[in-house]
Amino acid sequence: MSHSAARHTLAALGATLLTLTSAAVAAPVAAAATTPERVILVPTADPSTSQTITWRSDDSGSPVLEIAPAASPDQVTTVDGAKTDEVGGTFHAVTANGLTPDTDYRYRVGDGAVLSPWRTFTTASAGADPFTFLYFGDVQNGISTGGAAMARAALAAEPDAELAVHAGDLVNDADSESEWTEWFEAFGAEATGTMNHVTTAGNHEYALLSLSDYWRPQFPTPGNGASSWGRHLPDTSYHTDYQGVRFIVLNSNYRQAAPLGSRIWMDIQRDWLEDVLADNPHPWTVVTFHHPVFSNSPDRDNGVLRDAWLDTFEEYDVDLVLQGHDHSYGRGNVAANGTDDPRVQTGPVYTVAVTGTKMYDIAEDNWTDNGAEVRVQLSDTPTYQAVEVDGDFLRYTARTADGTVVDSFTIDKGDGKVVTDTF
C-alpha cells in the first residue's frame, strides 16, 4: 500500500457510485507503449467525493478504470474511460464520482487486458482536517538532474504530503516528448499516481501562441474556470477545494494567449477571481499563477498583472500567492501591510520559487518601486516548499535539496490574521 494509504484510518464503507466525465480534442502523433504510462491524479472541484485520472497508452483497446475501497478490495467497480487526445500515443481520462470522503481507494487503469499496477489514493476529508501540500517553482531546465533531485528530496522529506502545486514552466519546450517524459520520471509514478497535482501553465507551456498539445490531455480542469473569451481560459483556470483550502489557478500568459487583448483577458479572470473569492466557504485561500506581480529579476515587470489582480488579492486578503518564472527565490508583501514588529506582517504573502537548474539575477526594485517589501530574496537557490495547514495555522517552509531551510513563516488566524517570520 502506498504512503497515501497510511494517512488515514479506514472507515466503514458503503456502495460507491462512479460516473465518467471527460473532454476530447485531437492532434495525432506516433503511438506509445501498450502499458499505461503517465498515470496522474488531477483534482476535481471537490476531491473529497471525486477523482480525475489521466494516462497514456496505445489505441489497442477501450480504456477502463477499476476501483475499489482499499478496505474492501474485492468490491471492484469498472468504469469506462474516454480517449481524449493523440499526442505521442493515446491519452485517456476518467472521473470517479460518488466517492466517500477521507477514504483510501485502490485503482488501476488500462484497456481491460493490459492494466497499470494497483495504486492507492485517499479522498480529501469533508472538513478542514490538517494536511501538507508541496509547492514547486519552474522545473523547466535540467529536469532529469536538478528537478528530479529536488522532487525526490521533497517527497522523501514530506512523505505524507497530499497535494502538489506547480507554478508553471514544468518543461522548457512545450511540445517536447522527451521533456514531458523527464518530468513524469522526475516525480515518479508513485507520486503522480497517488497524490493530486494542481498545475498552472507557464510561458514555456506555450509554443508561439499555442498551448502545449500535452496540456489538456494531461491536466484537464474541473470546468469551473474563467469564461472562454480569448484563448485557453477554460483549459488553464480553475479552482479546487481541499480540506479547508480553496486553491485557485490563474493564467498569467497574456503575451502568449491574448497579445491583442491582454487587459480584457486579465480583467475577465479578475472578475471570475472575485466571484470565486467571495463565494469561498473555507478559511484559507491559495492562488497560483506563473508570472510574479512583483518581479524578482532586474528589468522585468508584469505591470498588466499587477494592475488587474493585485487590488483583488489585497481586498480579499488571499493567504498565499504562489508564483514562478523568475528563476530565483523571493518572498514579500505589500508594504502597507507591515507592522511595527519587523518579524510580523499582515495581508497576503507573495512568493517566487524555482525548482530546476536555470538561475537569474535578483533585485528588489520591482517590489519596492510598486509599494511592496522583500523579506527574503535569494539567487542561485533552487527550492521546494512544504506548507502545513492545521486549523488556525499555516506553516510554510522553503528548503534546498539537502534539507537546508532558507525561509519559513507562520500565518496565525486565531485572533485576527498575523504572519510571523520564523526563519
Provide an overview of this structure:
By secondary structure, this protein is of the alpha+beta class. It folds into two domains: 3-122, Sandwich (Immunoglobulin-like), CATH 2.60.40; 131-421, Metallo-dependent phosphatases (Purple Acid Phosphatase, chain A, domain 2, 4-Layer Sandwich). 19% of the residues lie in helices and 30% in strands. It contains eight helices and 25 strands. The strands form five sheets. The protein has an eight-stranded mixed beta sheet with strand order 11-10-9-22-23-24-25-19, with helices on one face. A seven-stranded mixed beta sheet has the order 14-15-16-17-20-18-21. Strand 14 and strand 15 form a beta hairpin. Helix 1 runs parallel beside helix 2 and helix 6 (262-278) packs parallel to helix 7 (303-315). The longest helix is centred in the middle third of the chain and has 18 residues, at 177-194. It is globular, with a radius of gyration of 20 Å.
